[in-house]
């Protein structure tokens, strides 16, 4: 396992400490969860934008019933 060092001003440290204490988490847990959540959100947004772009090129959609019928289910 590796370590990561970040610099925080006093206000940022107070906010993170208060949040961690309120949710009974360590500062490490709070920071790690926040970073990974940010990455996941950006990935999801990128995938959404790709799906919208694809739909705009070919605006065809199917209901769930139509999909089941197409699959013979």
List keywords for this structure.
3 helices, mainly alpha, 71% helix, 73 residues
Secondary structure blueprint with pairings:
Layout lengths: L9 H13 L4 H31 L6 H8 L2
Helix pairs in contact: 1-2
Overall average residue pLDDT: 96
Low-confidence runs: none
Cα-based radius of gyration, to the nearest Å: 21 Å
Distance between the termini: 47 Å
Task: Give the overall silhouette.
Answer: elongated
Helix content: over 70%
Main beta sheet = none
Organism: Fusobacterium nucleatum subsp. nucleatum (strain ATCC 25586 / DSM 15643 / BCRC 10681 / CIP 101130 / JCM 8532 / KCTC 2640 / LMG 13131 / VPI 4355)
Protein name: CopG family transcriptional regulator
Note down, in words, how this protein is organized.
The protein has a domain at 28-72. The protein is built from 3 helices and no strands. It has helices at 10-22, 27-57, 64-71. Helix 1 packs across helix 2. The radius of gyration is 21 Å and the shape is elongated. It starts with 9 loop residues before the first helix and ends with a helix. The mean pLDDT is 96. InterPro entries: DUF6290, ParD_sf, Ribbon_hlx_hlx.
């Amino acid at each position: 396992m590796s370590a990561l060092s970040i610099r925080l001003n006093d206000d940022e440290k107070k906010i993170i400490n208060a949040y961690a204490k309120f949710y009974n988490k360590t500062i490490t847990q709070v920071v790690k969860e926040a970073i990974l959540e940010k990455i996941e959100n950006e990935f999801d947004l990128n995938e959404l934008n790709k799906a919208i772009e694809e739909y705009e090129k070919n605006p065809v959609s199917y209901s769930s019933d139509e999909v089941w019928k197409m699959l013979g289910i």
